[in-house]
Design a protein that fits this description.
With about 325 residues, this protein is of the alpha+beta class. Helices cover about 20% and strands about 35% of the residues. Strands 1, 2, 3, 4, 5, 6, 7, 8, 9, 10 and 11 form an 11-stranded mixed beta sheet that branches. Strand 10 and strand 11 form a beta hairpin. Helix 2 packs antiparallel against helix 4. The longest helix is centred in the middle third of the chain and has 17 residues. It is globular and about 60 Å long.
Length: about 325
């Protein structure tokens, strides 16, 4: 499925693109691609027992080019979004996405944001309240005719490996570990009678990161530095879910690595000073169920006019 779309207020709010907003945007397009070419809506995908099905992600991997950060995508810009969904076996989906600036005619500009994902059809949480997903097979007449693939997605094996071993950071030097609690609140974090949307876990990870990096009780970086930290890569595996009233425990490990090249963005007005390498494990504190394991790579890109922030980082890390 290919569309030219405007990053309007429903996507960007009143600001620029964020990882959370992008994930919701792509998830919406993914659901529409499942019924493309039919007269169905995504909420009409059912199994042979008439149960509503939902395409639940078990893996997402987003990659952002260093020449065009998420935050560079402004309100009212046009983008060309492409979603290619393939099907393995009866209920496993393998998907590839790109989002790229474009002209009104669809001519693309610059490097694209890329995401890969895998998902499976499960019984919708409004019917099945269990945090352990119940998989099912959609009726053939309730889904688009998706291209079939014969090779099992590599992420299925990796899904089990990551649960067994977690993500071990090998780049950079350890600067610290931290644990952050977050309560799921109805109508703020989750819709009534639904489980948490996959993108919310990314938002919780970012809250944990910010609390560790910028709170004076923790690392205590200057808060203005937060505007200059940009996502390059996040690989996430989803194992369970939670509902309103649950408390998510987010554990983060942070390594830092010095950038050898200062002008990776291609802009001489800013310096790419450091990489952050982060791993996350999220749990439901009530049940101790594992929710999510992820790793992320970010870059700290500081304007030349604010290079004193690099000195602050060096001093705080050195101490």
């Amino acid at each position: 499925m290919e569309k030219i779309q405007t990053l309007d207020i429903s996507v960007n709010g009143l600001g620029n693109l964020t990882e959370y907003r992008l994930l919701v945007f792509l998830g919406n397009n993914h659901s529409l691609a499942l019924v493309e070419g039919t007269e169905l809506r995504p909420d009409e995908i059912i199994d042979s027992d008439g149960r509503l099905l939902y395409p639940a992600y078990y893996m997402t991997h987003i990659q952002v080019p260093i020449t065009s950060f998420l935050e560079d995508y402004c309100l009212w810009e046009k983008v060309k979004s492409v979603v290619n969904v393939q099907r393995f076996s009866v209920n496993l989906l393998d998907s590839h996405y790109t989002v790229q600036r474009c002209s009104d005619e669809g001519e693309v500009l610059g490097e694209p944001i890329v995401m890969d994902s895998n998902s499976m059809f499960i019984v919708d949480a409004t019917i099945d309240k269990s945090v352990h997903r119940t998989s099912s097979i959609p009726r053939a007449d309730r889904i688009a005719d998706l291209e079939k693939i014969k090779k099992i997605p590599e992420s299925l094996r990796r899904f089990n490996t990551i649960r067994n071993k977690g993500f071990i950071l090998t780049e950079g030097d350890l600067i610290g570990k931290y644990s952050f609690p977050y309560k799921i609140v109805e109508n703020r974090d989750v819709s009534i009678n639904h489980s948490v949307i996959f993108a919310k876990f990314t938002e919780i990870m970012d809250m944990c990161e910010k609390d560790y990096l910028f709170d004076g009780r923790n690392l205590g970086f200057p808060t203005e530095l937060s505007r200059f930290i940009h996502l390059l890569d996040r690989e996430t595996y989803y194992y369970s879910n939670c509902f309103s009233g649950d408390i998510v425990e987010c554990n983060i490990t942070v390594n830092m690595e010095k950038c050898e090249e200062l002008h990776l963005t291609g802009k001489k007005s800013e310096n790419t000073c450091f990489y952050l390498h982060e791993s996350f494990e999220l749990y439901n504190t009530r049940t101790r169920n594992l929710l999510v394991i992820a790793k992320a790579k970010k870059v700290i890109c500081i304007p030349v006019s604010d290079m004193y922030l690099k000195d602050d980082i060096n001093r705080i890390i050195g101490n």
